[in-house]
Design brief:
single chain, 81 residues, mainly alpha, 3 helices
Amino acid sequence: MNIRLEPWSNLSDQQKVEKHYLISLESASLIDALVASGGDKQEVKRNVDHLKIMVLKDFWNGQDLAPLNEAISAGEEYVNE
């Protein structure tokens, strides 16, 4: 099963956490790519705002949130240039 493509209603609680994590990593990668290419600051801000919400969730159970926090910092720095 590809958790990323599976409907939320078909997922267990643990799979939902995994899906949230995958989506958040995609957002972090997008921020990194946009910052590196001089991309749209509004798009960076939207993704930073999303990640700020996600890192505060209480359902994480051992996932490495460092890439998300690093993307937040890089994105904020870029948006505020």
